[in-house]
Amino acid sequence: MTTAADLAGLAALLADETRAGICLALLDGRSWTAGELAAHTGVAPSTATAHLHRLVAGGLLVERRQGRHRYVQLADASVAQLLEDLATRTEPGPARTGSLRAVTASAALRRGRTCYDHLAGRLGVAVTDAMSGRGLLERGSGFALTPAGLAWLADLVGWDPAQPRPGRRPLARGCLDWTERREHLGGLAGAKLCETFLDNRWVVRIGSGRAVRLTTAGHAALRDHLGITVTCSPPR
Amino acid sequence: MTTAADLAGLAALLADETRAGICLALLDGRSWTAGELAAHTGVAPSTATAHLHRLVAGGLLVERRQGRHRYVQLADASVAQLLEDLATRTEPGPARTGSLRAVTASAALRRGRTCYDHLAGRLGVAVTDAMSGRGLLERGSGFALTPAGLAWLADLVGWDPAQPRPGRRPLARGCLDWTERREHLGGLAGAKLCETFLDNRWVVRIGSGRAVRLTTAGHAALRDHLGITVTCSPPR
DNA sequence: ACGACAGTTCGGTGCTCATCGAAGGGTTCC
DNA sequence: GGAACCCTTCGATGAGCACCGAACTGTCGT
Fold it and tell me: Which domain of life is it from (chains A, B) (predicted)?
């Protein structure tokens, strides 16, 4: 039996624009740091801290301390589902009732999508797996590239690894996928890889959303460069 | 594209205990009057008015003016779905991810359930339909009983129609079902009928919730008294 | 060891909003 | 027509809370 107070308490977590912005940002499945979320929502770090406390206490987010950073992400896939249901209601237009269209769109998202600026979904995980044998090391939490792996990647994406990198973005980082429940390659390497995939039209965006589709050229490229075959049609 | 402000605005509608209580009350599919909701949530009528304005403006509720009454109900089935999803999250325990259990429970609810104090779901609609040929008239919005229908009902539920009724509850009223999207019999007549069904064990409650199941005796009673057959196993 | 950095705690400020009572407008019943 | 009733509008009140800056703790790089 759910009381009105319980329901109101849950809704109150999302009833603030800043907290809503945090949750929408986390909807991409990545882990964000408290500072990134503060900057993204335009509030002071102290304010972001308070919001994250409430969201974690409310069970919507989980946190992972790492050194002086505090990473947060959505607690589980059901939270992401709930957020997307709510977000759907705020959009005008027809086809609001859990339509076939929404289901297939969701299935497309599961197959492959961009996650912030790198590849996610089954496609992202498959690419990450394939790279594991080519110089990508799973290092506790996150990833690292061997020199050979870096050279291989640099050759693929056409980019000089010796050249100094602006900013301090980590080269390779892990990103937990909320549909696959698996880590996949993010960071600068993941972004460059995704850029290359899009530039070469190995994947193309479906509509204006985050979902992507593997092209015929993409199939060939994956086979040639990584020796894998990713099914493009829904399994089962 | 959903903005954080949109999401927060939607969540804010449910972030108040009184408004949450209103929505949970409406989850039974009935239309409630503003006064009933004020009494149910324990606030002044003026306060309830303000809340209903916000909920209607936000698209969660629809209203229907009838004389000096203002009836409100959930805008559509997707709102009910959303509320139940949120309510599920507030309950602790496992099996939170849209499990088979939740789906079958939902299917049982669609087949038959009590709606406040009368029968709803396919069962409720079927009974209402069958009574249409036996003295139940659809009167614009709502229902009315002919003298013959009243006598027939009084005989079935063992109740003297001549005896003065306490309170002012309408004898027969319509109640829109959010799974069937059809009107069914509510009001005092619907309550008495439901009481008789439960007392005679024509229907029994499934677990502790609102879902009910038609018994073998119930099948026979429906055939004898109303000449209808309601399937108890899931169709299709 | 030192500075730079990420995050936290704390006190103060201001705004939003839920609430009520009183007064007013419609509707129904007698 | 008048009384009872349902609902609404309008101020006033008070509590909750989102926000910031400043001071503080802990971590990383040099």
Answer: Bacteria
Using C1' positions and the CA of B42, the closest nucleotide is C19
More confident residue, A170 or A187: A187
When scoring B37, B86, B178 by the number of chain A Cβ atoms within 10 A, the one with the most, hence best to mutate, is: B86
Calpha distance A43→A68 (Å, rounded): 20
Among positive and negative, which fits the CA dihedral A72, A145, A170, A22? negative
Cβ atoms of B14 and B86 within 8 Å: the answer is yes
Rounded to whole angstroms, the distance from the CA of residue B173 to the C1' of nucleotide D13 is 41
d(Cα A11, Cα B23) in Å, to the nearest integer?
12
**All domains of chain A, ordered by start, with CATH?**
4-77 (1.10.10.10), 104-226 (no CATH)
Tell me which residues of chain B have a C-beta less than 8 Å from any C-beta of chain A. Answer: 2, 4-21, 23-24, 41, 59, 76-78, 81-83, 85-91, 96-98
Q: B150 pLDDT band (50/70/90 cuts)?
A: confident
Measure the CA–CA gap between B108 and B110, rounded to whole angstroms.
Answer: 5
As to burial, measured by CB atoms within 10 angstroms (0-12 exposed, 13-18 middle, 19+ buried), residue A101 is: exposed
**pLDDT tens, residue by residue, A72-105:** 988 887 788 788 889 888 876 544 444 434 444 4
Residue B153's pLDDT is 80
For the residues of B61-109, what is the DSSP string, one character each? EEEEEETTEEEEEESSHHHHHHHHHHHHHHS-SS--SS-HHHHHHHHHH
SS3 of residue B161 by DSSP: coil
Q: What is the DSSP letter of B112?
A: -
The whole-angstrom separation of Cα B14 and Cα B105 is 25
Q: Nearest CA to CA, how far is B207 from chain A (Å)?
A: 13
**B178–chain A nearest CA distance, Å:** 13
Nearest in space to B226 (alpha carbons), one of B108, B118, B124: B124
Q: Which residues contact A38 (CB under 8 A, 6 or more apart)?
A: A44, A45, A47, A48
pLDDT of B98 reads 40
**CA A25 from chain center: how many Å?**
10
A173-232 tens-digit pLDDT: 666 555 555 667 776 777 788 888 888 889 887 654 567 888 888 888 888 888 888 764
